[in-house]
Design a protein that fits this description.
The protein has 215 residues and is α/β, with parallel strands linked by helices. The protein contains eight helices and nine strands. Strand 5 and strand 6 form a beta hairpin. The longest helix has 16 residues. It is globular and about 70 Å long. The structure holds guanosine-5'-monophosphate. The site of guanosine-5'-monophosphate has 14 residues, from strand 5, strand 6 and helix 4.
């Protein structure tokens, strides 16, 4: 689905999608970005090692600790956080560039990151939380992707319980018990948020023109 922007420029926004790992967030966010040419994924920097199949510049910018800390010192991140002992940050410059063009940015980040961005730009933020149908299903998905040790999976499940408690801080909550339905929900949220009056400054001159039409 590609949006035909026939009226005029929009004001872009930042959409944060947060979920515990193993909830299918990556598949949801990647598809949303692939389906919308005016939505771009913010590629985070991380100090963790790439997992099999992960590509530099596509999944993350894999960055060593001194380089990461240098970017922190230069205020190069919109936000950054430590997750499971590794640092993750959203680089500022590409996000600002996209927003200035009136395009929107999707962040696949954790709870702390979403809260931090919302704190800086509440009007331009939309926060979505994705829930698993059950913790047992989450555990099954984490085991199925066989990327993490038993201990890491246990830590992820434990962290999920602490995170889910925060659900009321989000604008929207989606239940991913069926991928297609969860994706449709996410896409509807994106479409509705894009239609908000404050994000469509073209309406003012359009209405001006309408009112000048003779009747
Ligand atoms: P993973 O190592 O499984 O790719 O990611 C671990 C966690 O870090 C996930 O919850 C992911 O959303 C989060 N994360 C990824 N990039 C960023 C970022 O730039 N900032 C923050 N705050 N969290 C991030």
């Amino acid at each position: 689905m590609v949006w035909d922007d026939k009226y005029g420029p929009r004001r872009g926004f930042m959409m944060m999608v947060v979920a515990p790992s193993g909830v299918g967030k990556t598949s949801l966010t990647r598809r949303l970005v692939a389906d919308h040419r005016d939505l771009h994924l913010s590629i985070s920097h991380t100090t963790r090692e790439p997992r099999p199949g992960e590509q530099h510049g596509l999944h993350y910018h894999f960055t060593d600790r001194p380089t990461f800390d240098g970017m922190v010192a230069e205020d190069g991140f919109l936000e950054w956080a430590e997750v499971y002992g590794q640092r993750y940050g959203s680089p500022r410059a590409p996000v600002m560039g996209m927003l200035e063009k009136g395009e929107s940015v999707l962040f696949d980040i954790d709870l702390q990151g979403a809260a931090s961005i919302r704190g800086k730009a509440a009007e331009d933020s939309v926060c979505v939380y994705v829930l698993p149908p059950t913790l047992a299903e989450m555990s099954r998905r984490l085991h199925a992707r066989s990327q993490d040790s038993e201990e890491v999976i246990h830590r992820r499940l434990d962290r999920a319980k602490h995170e889910i408690i925060e659900w009321e801080a989000f604008d929207y909550v989606i239940l991913n018990d069926d991928f297609d339905r969860a994706y449709a929900d996410l896409a509807h949220i994106y479409h509705a948020e894009r239609l908000k009056r404050a994000r469509n400054p073209w309406i003012s001159s359009f209405v001006g023109g309408l009112l000048e039409e003779p009747i």
